[in-house]
Model the fold of this input.
Amino acid sequence: MKRIGVTGHRNIPVEAVGHVQTEILAVLHEHGGALEALSSLAVGADQIFADLALACGAELTVVVPSGDYADGFAAPGERAGYEALRRRATREVRLEFAHATDEAYYAAGAFIADNCDHLLAVWDGCPARGPGGTADIVHYARRLGRPVTVIWREGLVRD
Done:
């Protein structure tokens, strides 16, 4: 079974969502066959990836960074979206952090990079806005020698 992980921005400009979806689907179809999708189900790239992977028949493994992770889904509908995808997961990995911190987020991203065969990064190419951000996980995966596919629409600037 091929294992594909994701890291990416939470805030994806509306004009980029279609492009991101198309590129994620292209990678999922390219690998074909039995797939395992690894995601922390954060709003944005993680949830888009998980939803598309499930639609393609992949098994979903959710990597939960901390005991209070779900409390961070504060905007209307965010927690419901997270919980709906989490219920559809085949497996759940819970990291040992009590609280959602930068360290917990980095550990979750590193776990995904450590346990995937290919990492998708919905990334604008800019430095991480905090420890454990997308750029940090991309650099970590590349140091491991993991294939990384960066998905972003050229010329688009993130808020």
